[in-house]
Amino acid sequence: MTTSAGNTVLLGIGNTLWADEGFGPQVVARMRDRGDLLPPVELVDGGTQGLYLLPLVQDAARMIVFDAVDFGRPPGEMVVLRDDEIPAFFGQRPLSLHQTGFTDVLAAAELTGRRPQAITLVGVQYADIDTWGGGLSPAVAAAIDLAIETGRRELQSWEDATHV
User: Fold this and answer.
1) SS3 letters for the chain?
2) Residue 22 sits in a domain of what CATH number?
3) What is the pTM of this model?
4) Pairwise CA distance, residues 6 & 3, whole Å
5) Is residue 2 part of a domain?
6) Does the residue 1 lie in any domain?
7) Residue 80 lies inside a defined structural domain of this protein
8) What digits encode the pLDDT tens for the residues 1-44?
9) How do residues 71-123 score in pLDDT, each as one tens digit?
10) What is the rounded CA–CA span in Å between residue 113 and residue 23?
11) Are 22 and 15 in contact, with CB atoms under 8 Å apart?
């Protein structure tokens, strides 16, 4: 999972074996299947790699993270946060005491002085992350296309900002 400095990464995080927890990887998979994003955008299924994602985060200039979140909203509702708006905990729960959350990865990148210049969380409120082997709930599955479109708009806003 090597990256070149200055790239843009679209990262889906979560566990596809736990129902809605698989939202992030499903978004990235659908984007990859469509094949209509041009380089230098890199699509990454980060799964539950935890701190193994640190080099990826450190090397990215810009990053969009797709994840299932818990902000107490109705299932399928989208939450978009940018940069410092991203709280220390945004809903990802470790499956064991040995697993780290993505916010730990962001904190480690910050400590090393190598956090992306811009980072956006595109989160969707989950309905169910406790069903082993279950697919996405209908409300969360219905949010995939909106999440992709939100990611595209974010990429466009970054592109527009570089040409001002």
Assistant:
1) CCCCCCEEEEEEECCCCEHHHHHHHHHHHHHHHHCCCCCCEEEEEEECCHHHHHHHHHHEEEEEEEEEECCCCCCCCEEEEEHHHCCCCCCCCCCCCCCCCHHHHHHHHHHCCCCCCEEEEEEEECCCCCCECCCCCHHHHCCHHHHHHHHHHHHHHHHHHHCC
2) 3.40.50.1450
3) 0.88
4) 9
5) no
6) no
7) yes
8) 444 446 999 999 999 988 999 999 999 999 999 887 766 799 99
9) 899 999 999 999 988 865 544 555 433 356 788 888 888 889 999 999 999 99
10) 29
11) yes
Name, in order, each residue with C-beta under 8 angstroms of 34's C-beta and a sequence gap of 6 or more: 148
User: Could you tell me the residue range of the domain that residue 156 belongs to?
Assistant: 7-162
Residue with tokens 């090597």: 2
Residues in the chain: 164
Count how many domains the chain has.
1
Query: Which residues 6+ apart lie within 8 Å of 11 measured at CB?
Result: 24, 28, 44, 46, 53, 56, 63, 64, 65, 66
Assess if residue 133 is contained within a domain: yes
* Token couple for 45: 């299924």
